[in-house]
Amino acid sequence: MSNASLAAQPQRRGRKFLKIALYGSCVAAALLVGAHYTWKMSGSDQWRLVSDREGVRVYERKPSGSTFKQYKASMRMKSTMNRVVAGMMDRDLKSCAEWNPGCVSEQTVQPWDQQDRSFVHFYRVNLPDPMTPREFLLKAQFTPDLQDQSVFIQYTAMPDELPRNDCCYRVTHMNNNWRFTPAGKGEIEVDFMQDMDVGLPYFVYNLLAPGFVHDGLLSLPKIVNQAKYDQENGLFATTPATPTLKTPTTLASPIITTRAPASAFATVASQ
């Protein structure tokens, strides 16, 4: 065998290896795409119990056509409707930090509208480095039931109602809701449903969300059973109001003062 033939052998082996590697990469990509599509189109849309501990039941369901699962949970707790409603209406920074330990900014964008029974608020949650802070621009809609004295509260993302900031990831999809129903003997029946996409890869979110939902409900009594919430509220009043949506003056600049993990009620991660 000539010296030229010997020298060409490593080149041929190199080209062969590259072809095999390229073929393997294409097969792997095709398998991943196929698995993703199969997962997205799967799902019975039926609720399934995934956790029942410490008085909190957590369920999940997989809607066909979505990669994200939805979650709901229920429990009973010792409290009053006045405390619950006052706690859910409290939107200052201290309250935000109780719900979301990484919260560094809380601002009212649209004040309480007694006629519509709603408000719009904006808050920012810092995450551990190198993850991007998350911004939540949400409308809170309160719907009381005069017959059973229950209250239904829906939180809906309104991502494009205010300009976005370069510093942060604006949450674009959230449709979470709560129902609080008096159950007698000083107890409140709590029902919660979580339907959101906050930038977390779906396979990670679907793995972590049941634990977040459980821990979130378990922390609820401590949050609402504070002395400052022992007050009458005007939820069932009907005084007209015509609020307007205003841009807070501080939204244009980043508000980043601490780095802390987010809570179960702000399930977020890097983009």
Can you tag this structure with a few keywords?
271 residues, alpha+beta, eleven-stranded mixed β-sheet, 4 helices, globular, disordered C terminus
Describe the protein.
- It contains four helices and eleven strands; from the N terminus they run αβββααββββββββα.
- The protein has helices at residues 3-41, 81-89, 93-99, 202-224, and strands spanning 48-53, 56-61, 70-78, 103-113, 118-125, 134-144, 151-157, 169-170, 173-184, 187-194, 196-197.
- Strands 1, 2, 3, 4, 5, 6, 7, 8, 9, 10 and 11 form an eleven-stranded mixed sheet that branches.
- The protein is globular and about 85 Å long.
- The relative contact order is 0.18.
SSE layout and pairing:
Blueprint: H1 3-41, E1 48-53, E2 56-61, E3 70-78, H2 81-89, H3 93-99, E4 103-113, E5 118-125, E6 134-144, E7 151-157, E8 169-170, E9 173-184, E10 187-194, E11 196-197, H4 202-224
Parallel strand pairs: 6-8
Antiparallel strand pairs: 1-2, 2-3, 3-10, 4-5, 5-6, 6-7, 7-9, 9-10, 9-11
- Globally, the shape reads globular
The fraction of residues assigned to DSSP E strands is 25-35%
Question: What assembly state would you assign to the polypeptide chains in this entry?
Answer: single chain
What is the first-to-last residue Cα distance?
A: 57 Å
Largest sheet: 11 strands, mixed
Task: Write a compact overview of the structure shown.
With 271 residues, this protein is of the alpha+beta class. The protein is built from four helices and eleven strands.
